[in-house]
């Protein structure tokens, strides 16, 4: 493994160990492990905050092990650790705080593996789809524990459902990318949401009715408040120490990129500049939550981890702030409390649309963010909360609309100019 890969690998291993050790210390080994195992058999659909349904320690261990599975597959398959894999593993860790468990992600990955085998490809060629595709983990948990099956049959049915979901994802992901043309960073959010529409419909056809329940941790915890800022500080320090003055130049160069998929900042600029960008994005997101008086809980921390990951793969300050502003303006216009679950998560995850601002400018970015909030408040119910990347689903629909209009205008303008 090359020197660049070794740097990222070392950091990710240290991060995973830090989360595990922190979890064991916070709750005590016995309580933390009991909570972790309990999370494996609890509902995982949106919006289930594992800190609320479990404990801080158990959730930290779950998040770490979910990320460890992604890292293990990446290393064992000899996939380069770069912007996409960095984003994928950070996202897996993040959603290990609310929705992904060790139990419910493995069947989905297995399904992607079988899909690759059918077309005589290696799993390493579909590794990004496999890692991000774990957004459909709640489908496994739903079938296993929620819809009435019991015993080992329930578990087998859940695993089978997850494998089926993973099997179809490679084909869907390619089609969805063509729709928004790379302007929705969470392409697997759109792909998983598309599949989840069908899965939820079939489940509803059996007579099951999805109940909307929001598990949202509201207690104050210094551990949760400072978790992301501390990790962000480590990222910033690592980037500056390793890259020196060049790190600052690379960071500035990242701000010049549109972020449109695929934009691997680690390849296009440098690992050090990407780490600095990631750390600063994490601090900015945390600061926003502090300012609005939001809760630091599983979903919020999961969201912050996600945008920190994508700070190596499409997200930076220049292309993000217009979209964020658009969500804030939309929230205020439609009388949405900025600190309530929907708007606070939309502000964090709306950066999936950052490439629109990076490519087409500030006004387009603000417009995208404005529409995004309206969409994301509706799309979760469409797919029964089975797709954890609901903002990616809404973002994909929004990006497709905006790109279609822009391209139609440009084509017709050129015809008559």
Report on the structure:
The protein has 417 residues and is an all-alpha fold. The chain has helices at residues 3-27, 29-39, 50-53, 56-76, 83-95, 102-118, 127-132, 137-145, 151-180, 187-205, 222-243, 245-254, 265-268, 271-292, 298-310, 317-333, 341-349, 354-360, 362-382, 390-415. The N and C termini lie far apart (54 Å).
Please render the helix and strand layout as text.
Elements: H1 3-27, H2 29-39, H3 50-53, H4 56-76, H5 83-95, H6 102-118, H7 127-132, H8 137-145, H9 151-180, H10 187-205, H11 222-243, H12 245-254, H13 265-268, H14 271-292, H15 298-310, H16 317-333, H17 341-349, H18 354-360, H19 362-382, H20 390-415
Helix pairs in contact: 1-2, 1-4, 2-4, 4-5, 5-15, 6-8, 6-9, 8-9, 9-10, 10-20, 11-12, 11-14, 11-15, 12-14, 14-15, 15-17, 16-17, 16-18, 16-19, 17-19, 18-19, 19-20
């Amino acid at each position: 493994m090359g020197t660049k890969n070794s740097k990222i690998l070392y950091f990710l291993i240290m991060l995973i160990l830090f989360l595990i050790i922190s979890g064991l210390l916070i709750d005590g080994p016995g309580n933390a492990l009991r909570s972790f195992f309990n999370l494996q058999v609890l509902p995982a659909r949106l919006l289930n905050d594992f800190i609320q349904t479990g404990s801080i320690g158990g959730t930290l261990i779950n998040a770490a092990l979910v990320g460890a599975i992604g890292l293990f597959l990446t290393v064992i398959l000899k996939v380069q650790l770069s912007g996409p894999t960095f984003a994928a593993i950070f996202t897996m860790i993040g959603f290990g705080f609310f929705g992904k468990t060790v139990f419910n992600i493995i069947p989905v990955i297995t399904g992607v593996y079988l899909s690759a085998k059918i077309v005589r490809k290696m799993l390493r060629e579909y590794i990004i789809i496999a890692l991000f595709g774990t957004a459909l983990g709640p489908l496994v948990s739903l079938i296993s524990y929620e819809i009435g099956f019991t015993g080992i049959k329930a578990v087998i049915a859940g695993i089978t459902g997850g494998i089926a979901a993973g099997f179809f994802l490679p084909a869907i992901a390619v089609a969805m990318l063509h729709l928004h043309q790379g302007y929705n960073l969470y392409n697997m959010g759109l792909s998983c949401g598309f599949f989840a529409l069908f899965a939820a419909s079939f489940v509803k056809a059996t007579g099951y009715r999805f109940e909307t329940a929001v598990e949202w941790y509201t207690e104050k915890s210094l551990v949760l408040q400072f978790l992301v800022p501390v990790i962000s500080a480590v990222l910033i320090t690592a980037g500056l120490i390793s890259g020196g003055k060049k790190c600052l130049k690379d960071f500035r160069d990242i701000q010049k990129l549109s972020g449109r998929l695929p934009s691997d900042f680690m390849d296009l600029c440098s690992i050090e500049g990407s780490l600095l960008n990631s750390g600063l994005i994490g601090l900015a997101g945390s600061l926003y939550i502090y300012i609005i008086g939001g809760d630091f809980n599983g979903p919020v921390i999961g969201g912050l981890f996600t945008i920190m990951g994508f700070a190596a793969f499409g997200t930076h300050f220049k292309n993000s702030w217009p979209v964020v502003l658009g969500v804030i303006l939309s929230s205020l216009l439609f009388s949405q409390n900025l600190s309530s679950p929907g708007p606070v998560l939309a502000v964090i995850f709306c950066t999936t649309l950052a490439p629109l601002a990076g490519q087409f400018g500030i006004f387009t970015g603000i417009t995208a963010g404005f529409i995004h909030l309206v969409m994301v408040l509706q799309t979760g119910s469409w797919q029964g909360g089975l797709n954890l990347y609901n903002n990616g689903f809404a973002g994909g629909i929004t990006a497709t609309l905006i790109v279609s209009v822009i391209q139609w205008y440009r084509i017709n303008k050129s015809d008559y100019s």
